[in-house]
Amino acid sequence: MGGVPSTPRWGGAAEMRPAETAEYLIGALVGEKSYPLASDYWQKLLESPLHLRWPAHRVLQASQLFAQNNCKTRHLAKILVHLAWCLQECVSASGVPSAALVRALNALYISSVFLKYFIENAKSDHFEELHLSLDENEAKPTSFSKGGGPGRFQVKIVYGILLAENYQTIEQLVMHSVLSFLGKVDVSTNTYLLHHELLNFMLIAMSTQLLSGPSPGPDDSHPLIDAMMVQESSFVSLVVSKLLLNYIRRPNFPIDSSSYSIFSEVNQTGVLQRVGSAAANFVLLPFNLFVGSTGEATRSPLAENSLNVLLILIHYRKCIETDYVKDRGDHSSEPLPKEDACFSENPYCKALENAQDIEFDRLDVEGNVQNGPLVRLPFASLFDTLGLYLADERSILLLYSMVQGNSAFLEYVLVRTDLDTLLMPMLETLYNASRRTSNQIYMVLIILLILSQDSSFNASIHKLMLPNVPWYQERLLHQTSLGSLMVIILIRTVKYNLSKLRDVYLHTNCLATLANMAPHVHRLSAYASQRYNKLAEMSNNKMHMPNGESKEEDNLPEDTTAELHIYTDFLRIVLEILNAILTYTLPRNPEVVYAIMHRQEVFQPFRNHPRFNELLENIFTVLDFFNSRMDAQKMDGEWSVEKVLQVIVINCRSWRGEGMKMFTQLRFTYEQESHPEEFFIPYVWQLVLSCSSFSFNPNSINLFPVDLPLEKQDSFVGEDGQKLQSGGLNGLEQQVDVLA
């Protein structure tokens, strides 16, 4: 095979075998000679069979030679222009022709290979080495043949500037064509592969983010993703809708390859096979990636890639220049203060936030129909799909993005009667917290907190009964309400956090959700009621450690005073939760009364504590009331649990709350920090790299610490590890506000 030829011989190319033709054409592409945009070379390149099996070192050699000559040849820009033209032909044709698909796939694979190399090895801050413009000496194309030529699109080259409709740069033309195909052309047997590879191309195009730091600045350059951000709102809505529909419908790769023209033996044209793995080999498309050994589709790469692209798009933020930046001067080396950072609007995020249910033509408060293009989705199908795939961390992030940003979807979720569809997989994730990433746990807790802000949600979860909970191992849970299970899991998470992690943000979120639920608790199970006492007991034990010592002295932080302050605040919230249950829902929760009576000695040490005495007055008022009723009963023999509960149930009916002090009802809300991009952009890319086949040179990554493995982490391994992975939550900063 030898090295990559830089001076191929055109003579006799037609007689060469396909592999030799591919050698020749790729050699011409990476060589020194510049082929004009109108040259028939491009047609030969895109229509010839390009089945190559190059080892990694040859791909690297070709990429290096291409990078060396691209400043003169501008072949990257030209292959991207031809990609745009091929995609436009596919969109404009009534049915996507096979020949057009092959040309588009060839252009797509070739440009993906070299674009990825350029980005991974970029030396300039603004990716000048891409040379995404045409040389001023480029001849003006006047006419082209109909077979895929650009003449039909009325595109002309004038002084190195590409003009296509309203798109004045190559980046805008290419991304317009990519988005147009994704949004307008349906996924079918013939188009599946092109859809999938266009999503891969978008990941490569957006991977410039990996080279930037975690805080977007005005000097950051992302030419291709910025070109996506300036597209028409109609295209943006089409793309967001199609990506979500791909996620919902989860189309599978066509199992019968003979029906797929690209793989058909009678098809004489071929494709340059995609770059595979981190070694970037030209390899044949791995069929087993899409189809299992049994012939049945095992997964939907198109759905997964659609979700990857969507998450990156909606969380992208472009920092724009402000008067403050201009006053500093262009050469200031000081980072831009957060308070002075200004970001342009993200149309994809806006489209997702304004998405509406396809079954409900919503009007605004004035009764006017929403203006502008809207994303319309089957909320019912999205709800069900999320419920099926919440074990995937990316689906958790999508659900967070929907309930946090889209009020219409949040309202839809809250009126569903089968909330267990979403809650059960999330509660199972919390149950298995030790085997989940810390960020995944935070996302789940924030979603639960957002849902718990609605009183109807808090009421409905106690009415939905679960016949069993098969993944809960500590004890059998039969006919337990969803609300009781939620209390059990949240308190279990708090206990785990206090014993292992001591993460203030985590237990604050758990307690905030429990506090929101408290005034609406209804027939809490005995096991769930006992969990509240366990929290009080744990705080009691922690706050009474002499001189900060315990059986596990090494696990204690150095500043014992700070830790005791944390436990004091923690116990106060627990007592306020109990107060809310006893004040507003006591007659409906005899098991809670039984639980505090059974372990009433837990509260005695804090009765005179200045932080707790007011809250404990109500608890002891309840204890005095029911203890007196118990003492008035004449019993032969010992009290059994059933007999005690019977007395409590009877006297709950006569409870009037006399002597109870009314406190301001706790209500916690979640607010996203003013600069969430510092958390979400690195987090999304970590998910993409760890959950998909997309790879990137770790030595080039500046977006997050490169010493972190990109696979799933064993989360909660300690404070340092958790802070590295979650950004210490400084980027997300859950703001839990108590509203009077």
TrEMBL record:
The keyword Lipoprotein applies. Pfam families: Dymeclin. Keywords: Lipoprotein, Myristate. Belongs to the dymeclin family. This is Dymeclin. It comes from Coffea arabica (Arabian coffee).
